[in-house]
């Protein structure tokens, strides 16, 4: 049976009236960068002046296009048509955005708080939540206003952080309200002295922030200007995340125009256990996708014999996405066919249980999206708990798009729970960053109220504006503080003197995991800035509960920083796959971790091994070349992590018994 593409109900990239912007989202590792690049190549070849933008903090767009990219558009040769590509540098975009508004922002803060100019500059440098995501949206909108381009394709970060970016226009309007509260104090003082108030440049900036938030929200919700394509693969975790994302986007009034099911296994040239099992597995996932998203417009793309890199390979995928070629067949294998397949383990010595030493308190798993870091983290946690029954092991996920529960085959929440079939000393938890930050915010708000109640007791001062501004400062906390607050709450014992606790952490994909690792220092500086504000109130109110809240947060951050910097107590396991794009990102990740002085004892190459048909043999040879290249790269560094391999399985391991058996097959690379 040949599936019908339902995508014809949507406007294709080559049609007249197609949306000016095409956002391409999806779970990490499903090939969204490849699909976005392919769409851009197809649009350029159809005669549209096209720009493709990557918003991922760990971009691989340049790897896919075979072109070195930067924060300014660079031309990509496409034989016919005009294509440019850019990888947004959110730090540079943020610096430019703040730089253009710094004087007005500082004047607002100076007028509305008891800060001096040095305190204000410090607070602005560290604060403004989500402003890097907002800066990315501003860059997208800025290029959209340029007459240079007819079509803009946006390659986004993995699911959780893309959803956060698309929700940022509301945060920008909220930020405008905070600055408006600061400006209100100045307006009231001037009106009292002059008998009235005339809006000034600072009021204009506040209005600009609010207007920009509303205009960005309107842009993202306008189907005549923006189309959202969501990329997935026919695997249970990816399908479930796709359905969750579609519901979340619907809540933002951003409909998913079509779902692209990428890398479907074509019929093998000869009988092949891997291909047969994979096609049976994919057929079940497609049925699940149809059940979760009934009526959704879908189009399928076949897996290529070689990893698609460069314009020529991308053009073929772009043709499939634009309807120029027929969608792939997804019927299962003829006859009874294989339902399961396992690659043989190769190499020396099982390694999973030895990843955490007796002094290890924090074991992080990270890497490019889709490489299997969640599955590896879950399997390692189970094996370590079995090997060390006296240790209390907690497996946690910090990824906003959680899949730890899917890997363990159990429903998880922010409350730690035992996983059936695992040792009693193991619990698992999916962190609710918003809940953790609400708790911090509530403690902060209570402490501020207590502070101003003491100041106002018996005094004739009107501190209404001061109280409101101090309450608002928590809303200007640095981006990522919500995730950091959740991690601190989950590590009450991991950085204490106790010798029997271990936290195994499944992190978000590369770029956001790195930002999380940088956050403790940034947030600690922000806390110090708040302490300097508090000291200005101390002569009339003392430090009180507000000081205690800030002091505890600073101490927690200091302990977390010390933990991350201690190679005896913290380790980062890098997970990758034997393919060119994951290997390139792994090399960059290892360099960043080295510069941050974070210990990396091992690199796990996940899902190695293929079947016996001609196509699988070619794929297997390509895998071995990638592993050899990675091994050669690791050998050049002063610190040489252990290279290990984890065999491929169809279906992928899931649930306690399957993960335990699979983890025991991990081997040192030969």
Say what the CATH topology of one domain is.
Answer: Rossmann fold
CATH fourth-tier homologous superfamily of one domain: P-loop containing nucleotide triphosphate hydrolases
Output the number of helix runs.
Answer: 22
User: Overall mean pLDDT score?
Assistant: 85
Distance between the termini: 43 Å
Beta fraction: 15-25%
Poorly predicted runs are 1-19, 324-335
Description:
The protein is an alpha/beta fold and 670 residues long. Among the domains are: 19-105 and 127-176 and 210-321, Rossmann fold; 342-433 and 567-668, Rossmann fold (3-Layer(aba) Sandwich), CATH 3.40.50.300. 49% of the residues lie in helices and 15% in strands. The chain contains 22 helices and 20 strands. A ten-stranded mixed beta sheet has the order 10-20-18-17-16-11-15-12-14-13, sandwiched between helices. Strands 3-4-2-5-1-6-7-8 form an eight-stranded mixed beta sheet, with helices on both faces. It has a two-stranded antiparallel ribbon with strand order 9-19. The chain is globular and about 90 Å long. 49% of the residues are buried.
């Amino acid at each position: 049976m040949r599936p019908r593409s339902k995508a014809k109900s949507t406007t294709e990239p080559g049609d007249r009236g197609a949306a000016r912007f095409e956002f391409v989202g999806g779970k990490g590792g499903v090939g969204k960068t490849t699909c976005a690049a392919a769409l851009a190549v197809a649009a350029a070849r159809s005669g549209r002046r096209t720009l493709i933008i990557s918003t991922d903090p760990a971009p691989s767009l340049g790897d896919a296009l075979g072109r070195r990219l930067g924060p300014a558009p660079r031309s990509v040769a496409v034989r016919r048509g005009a294509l440019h590509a850019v990888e947004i540098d959110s730090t540079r975009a943020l610096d430019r955005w703040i730089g253009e508004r710094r004087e007005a922002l500082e004047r607002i803060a100076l007028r509305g708080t008891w800060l001096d100019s040095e305190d204000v500059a410090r607070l602005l440098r560290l604060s403004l939540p989500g402003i890097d995501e907002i800066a990315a949206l501003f860059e997208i909108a800025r290029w959209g206003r340029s007459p240079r381009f007819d079509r803009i394709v946006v390659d986004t970060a993995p699911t959780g952080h893309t959803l956060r970016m698309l929700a940022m226009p509301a945060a920008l309007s909220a930020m405008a309200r905070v600055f408006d509260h600061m400006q209100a104090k100045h307006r009231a003082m001037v009106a009292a002295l002059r008998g009235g108030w005339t809006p000034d440049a600072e009021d204009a900036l506040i209005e600009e922030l609010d207007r920009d938030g509303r205009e960005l929200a309107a842009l993202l919700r306008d189907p005549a200007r923006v189309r959202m394509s969501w990329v997935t693969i026919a695997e249970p975790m990816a399908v479930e995340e796709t359905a969750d994302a579609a519901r979340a986007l619907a809540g933002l009034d951003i409909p998913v125009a079509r779902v692209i099911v990428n890398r479907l296994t074509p019929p093998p040239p000869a009988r092949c256990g891997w291909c047969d099992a994979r096609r049976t597995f994919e057929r079940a996932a497609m049925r699940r996708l149809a059940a979760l998203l009934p009526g959704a417009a879908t189009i399928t793309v076949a897996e290529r014999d070689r990893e698609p890199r460069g314009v020529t390979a991308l053009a073929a995928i772009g043709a499939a996405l634009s309807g120029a070629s027929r969608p792939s067949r997804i019927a299962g294998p003829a006859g009874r066919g294989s339902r399961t397949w396992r690659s043989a383990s190769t190499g020396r010595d099982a390694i999973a249980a030895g990843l955490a030493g007796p002094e290890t308190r924090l074991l992080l798993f990270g890497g490019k999206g889709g490489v299997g870091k969640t599955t590896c983290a879950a399997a390692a946690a189970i094996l370590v708990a079995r090997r060390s029954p006296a240790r209390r092991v907690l497996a946690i996920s910090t990824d906003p798009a959680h899949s730890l529960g899917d890997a363990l085959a159990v429903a998880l929440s922010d409350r730690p729970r035992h996983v059936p079939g695992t040792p009693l000393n193991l619990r698992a938890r999916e962190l609710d960053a918003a809940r953790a930050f609400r708790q911090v915010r509530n403690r902060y708000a209570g402490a501020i109220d207590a502070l101003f109640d003491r100041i106002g007791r018996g005094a004739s001062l009107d501190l209404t504006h001061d109280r409101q501004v101090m309450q608002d400062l928590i809303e200007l906390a640095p981006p990522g503080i919500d995730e950091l607050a959740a991690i601190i709450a989950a590590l009450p014992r991991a950085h204490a003197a106790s010798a029997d606790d271990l936290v195994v952490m499944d992190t978000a994909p590369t770029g956001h995991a790195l930002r999380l690792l940088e956050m403790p220092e940034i947030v600690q500086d922000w806390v110090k800035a708040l302490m300097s504000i508090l000291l200005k109130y101390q002569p009339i109110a003392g430090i009180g509960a507000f000081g205690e809240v800030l002091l505890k947060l600073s101490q927690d951050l200091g302990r977390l920083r010390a933990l991350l910097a201690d190679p005896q107590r913290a380790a980062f396991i890098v997970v990758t796959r034997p393919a060119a794009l994951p290997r390139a990102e792994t090399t960059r990740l290892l360099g960043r971790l080295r510069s941050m002085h974070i210990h990396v004892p091992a690199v796990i190459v996940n899902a190695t091994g293929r079947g016996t048909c001609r196509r699988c043999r070619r794929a297997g040879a390509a895998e071995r070349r990638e592993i050899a290249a990675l091994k050669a790269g690791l050998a050049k560094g002063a610190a040489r992590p252990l290279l290990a391999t984890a065999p491929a399985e169809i279906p992928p391991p899931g649930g306690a018994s399957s993960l335990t058996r699979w983890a025991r097959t991990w081997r040192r690379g030969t």
